[in-house]
Design goal:
Order of helices and strands: HHHHHHHHHHHHHHHHHH
Number of strands: 0
Number of domains: 1
Structural class: mainly alpha
CATH superfamily: Hydantoin permease
Low-confidence stretches: none
Strand content: under 5%
Radius of gyration: 21 Å
Distance between the termini: 43 Å
CATH class: Mainly Alpha
Mean pLDDT: 87
Helix content: over 70%
Length: 448
Amino acid sequence: MSVSRGEFSSRLGFIMAAAGSAVGLGNIWGFPTQTASNGGAAFVLVYLVLAFTLAYPAFMAELLIGRYGQANAVTSLQKMSRTAFHKRFAFLVGFSGIICAALILSFYGIIAGWMMSYALEPVLNIAGVSNTAEWVVTQSTSRNVLFTGLFMFLTIFIIRRGVEDGIEKWSKRLMPMLITILVLLIGYVFTLEGASEGLLAYLNPDISRVLEPNLLISALGQAFFSLSLGTSVMIIYGSYISKKENLVTIGAQVTLIDVSIAFLAGLLIIPAMYVAQAQGVAIFAENGSLISGSGLVFTVLPALFDTMGAGGLFVATAFFILMTIAALTSSISMLEGPVSFVVERHNVERKKATTIIGILIFLISIGIISNIGVMLDFVATLATEYGQPLIAMLCCVFVGWIWHRNEILQEIKQGNDNVETSFFWMVWPWYTKFVCPTAIAIVFIHSL
């Protein structure tokens, strides 16, 4: 690998960075709200099954593509190609992933900006500037543009510093902070009235709902979104992994961390909703379903924090700092995909490429903000529920049908000499070739 490309300095560095990419708002907000709107524990059960049976094999495919290609998504896929058609197909898949990452970041930055503003609101109240505190939590174009811009600035700042000094360094700092705050908040919520009822709703599945089309596509989209699949992110992260590392092991570790934190987020959010109900806060919509999405995070939970008195200010601050950290660990990975493509394919200096691409994505965010009621949900659905699973499916097709089996084996054996006799190698190649693309396609078509 060229030194100028950068490389993760350790296994821990990659795990923190990849887990940080996976553990974002998709886990801390998306997973609990999807759970709330899709039958509670029934969604949790389907999500866990899909995460390990479809998302993990696809995750491994993307990591392998990246480490083999030692380059951005497009170049890595083209290195596997044997014919001119394969190369054109590789460009389509790789570049689509890059565009998907940019689209996700464009709406993600807006939501992350809301998290920053809500984290600031309790501090402003303590400081006695109540008018400003009210402004930062009131929906407005100026508020959205300001905080989206601040969040994009943080993302650009980290990516400009490169792989080891930027992505890895900050992931190692942010991930322990995220996990610590999450565990402390769970412990606190479990001491409150109503938490046990929420825990029961979260862990007791209604099996009759597990085959509902909406639930299946939501769970599949959530599994792929939370692992950053179909966005070129894991291909580029894979290209920064040392050839000495055991990809099978660290891929499983990242998936386990991602799923565990999503599960922990549900342990926080769903019981907190029932705690809010015990305090007189409405948690059910008119149709009888649990309130989800922005209504949950920006209405139900703040109302709960308000019932806690002075302590609620500190809990609210900790919760929204948690959300901001989760967003930042993911946004840096989403910006890295487009940046690596421009740096390597067009020979643009990293800092310049990062700044230009970051500003362009911010301009897309402003376009979404200008018609936020329609555009936010449209872009989010297009990118996460349709774009990501389809692109990840095509990556599986590449690994299963275009990349030679012996080359795959030789790549995995670097860092894992005995993989040829392992259960993973007996199952994964044909599973990725036949089962993953077929299952993703069936779930996707069934949802339509």
